[in-house]
Amino acid sequence: MIQTMKSEDIKNLNIAIVGAGYGGAAAAKA
């Protein structure tokens, strides 16, 4: 497991996860 993460890394990770979620929802709707 990752012990230390920079807040920027966490922010980017959250953006990626949220972006993937929205992308999946949009693809499912289309």
Provide a descriptive summary of the structure in words:
With 30 residues, the chain is mainly α. The chain contains 1 helix and no strands. The protein has one helix spanning 7-29. It is rod-shaped, with a radius of gyration of 13 Å. The termini are far apart.
Descriptive labels:
mainly alpha, 30 residues, 0% strand
Order of helices and strands: H
Unreliable residue runs = none
Could you give the distance between the termini? 37 Å
Percent of sequence in beta strands: under 5%
Largest sheet: none
Number of helical stretches of at least 4 residues: 1
Number of strands: 0
Structural class: mainly alpha
* Rg: 13 Å
- Give the averaged pLDDT, no decimals: 82
* Percentage of residues assigned to helices: over 70%
Shape: rod-shaped
Helix and strand layout, with pairings?
Elements: H1 7-29
Concise summary:
77% of the residues lie in helices and 0% in strands.
